[in-house]
Amino acid sequence: MKQQGFSFDLSQSAQAAAATQCPAPITLVRGFLNVEQQQALMQEAQHYPFERPQIRVYGQYHPIPRSQVWFADKGCDYRYSNLFIEAVDWPKYAQRCRDMLAREFGLQSNGVLVNRYRDGNDTMGWHSDDEVEIEPGSDIASLTLGASRDFLIRHKQTKARYTIALTSGDLLIMHWPMQQAWQHSLPKRKAVSDCRLNYTFRQLVPNFHATG
Q1: Gene3D superfamilies this protein is in (predicted)?
Q2: pLDDT tens-place string over residues 131-150
Q3: Which residue of 76, 133, 142, 151 has the lowest C-beta tally within 10 Å?
Q4: Contact (CB, 8 A) for 120 and 29
Q5: Does CATH number 2.60.120.590 belong to domain 16-202?
Q6: Contact 32, 171 (CB under 8 A)
């Protein structure tokens, strides 16, 4: 049965796979989401409970330079950068994206971190998605909506750097063991005035933070 706004042809997905000069274990699929799908997600995101939590830096607390929300299955709470984030129930279209990734790529996920960058001043520093509760050997899928932004990748040992311009609808899959050898970031871009949404789908060990 066709799901309105979220039908997808696998042959189109395969044809959209783009080559990159980056040797990191990634798959880039340009235009994975069509315009209708992008619009459905953008409209849904207007009602997401975004927050800007504070993190401690050199003894002082500062709000993160973006806003975020964590949608996940029950028991899939998440901790990173000393922040503990309780799972919020999946919204309709984020859930459909999750289903598409499982169907088209066999990529399993039980949570998605949605980051909202208001403009080019909002940013994400160098990091790896290597938290202990992430399922060992699992891949992470990143979906871009809205403004185009440069996505930087850096090897931890050689410090070799690569830049990939991600545009609305693009899918970037970071395959295991990328997080062990590489870091990534989203630097400031003063010329960017529009909002960008990024969905990163992850597979966590269920009930990792359960107590009692």
Answers
A1: Alpha-ketoglutarate-dependent dioxygenase AlkB-like
A2: 999 999 999 999 999 999 99
A3: 133
A4: no
A5: yes
A6: yes
